[in-house]
Structures are given as C-alpha cells and as structure tokens.
Amino acid sequence: MWWHWSWYGWLLMSVTMIAFWATVVYLVAGALGRPHGEPIGRPDSPEAVLAQRLATGDIDDDEYRRRMATLADRSSR
Questions:
Q1: Same domain, 66 and 52
Q2: Are residues 30 and 55 in the same domain?
Q3: Structural domain tally of the chain?
Q4: Is 56's pLDDT higher than 70?
Q5: DSSP alpha helix (H) spans, 2-76
Q6: CB atoms within 10 A of CB 56
Q7: Is the pLDDT at 32 greater than 70, yes or no?
C-alpha cells in the first residue's frame, strides 16, 4: 500500500521531484537563452576573443594587432 509511506519517503519523493523539475527548467532555459551555434561556456582563448571582436567591428585592425602583440609578449615570459 503506497499511501502508508513514512515521512522520509515523502521527503525523498519531494526532493527528487524538485531536483527533476529544476533540471528541466535549467536545460530549457539554457537552450533558449543562447543563440544558435554559440558554444556553451567560455571562449577558448584570448586570441579567439580578439578575433571575434575584430569580426564584429568592436576593434579595428591596428587595435587587433597591438593587442595580439601584447598577448604574444606576455606568453613568451
């Protein structure tokens, strides 16, 4: 008879259902909240960020080259 659960059975069922629905909401929000094709997580490298900024027009060629030189200088240390 399933209706004669003790209090810890009901607690376990409640926590499991909350965890299930929280996971569903998290996955749906994650899928809807990011543009199609955009990777999940952080960009791979600072170079990739600079390339993306150059591609979108946030920085010009001179700024891109200057910042890439700065990154190359820091990585050689």
A1: yes
A2: no
A3: 2
A4: yes
A5: 7-33, 46-56, 61-75
A6: 8
A7: yes
Question: Cα 20 to chain center, whole Å?
Answer: 20
Residue of 63, 33, 34, 68 lying closest to 48 (CA atoms): 68
Host domain of residue 22: 1-41
5-41 residues labelled b (16+ CB within 10 A) or e (exposed): eeeeeeeeeeeeeeeeeeeeeeeeeeeeeeeeeeeee
Domain match, 23 and 4 both: yes
Same-domain status, 52 and 68: yes
Q: What is the mean pLDDT of the chain?
A: 82
User: Are 1 and 35 contained in the same domain?
Assistant: yes
- Distance separating the N- and C-terminal Cα atoms of the chain: 71
Sign of CA dihedral 10, 11, 12, 15: positive
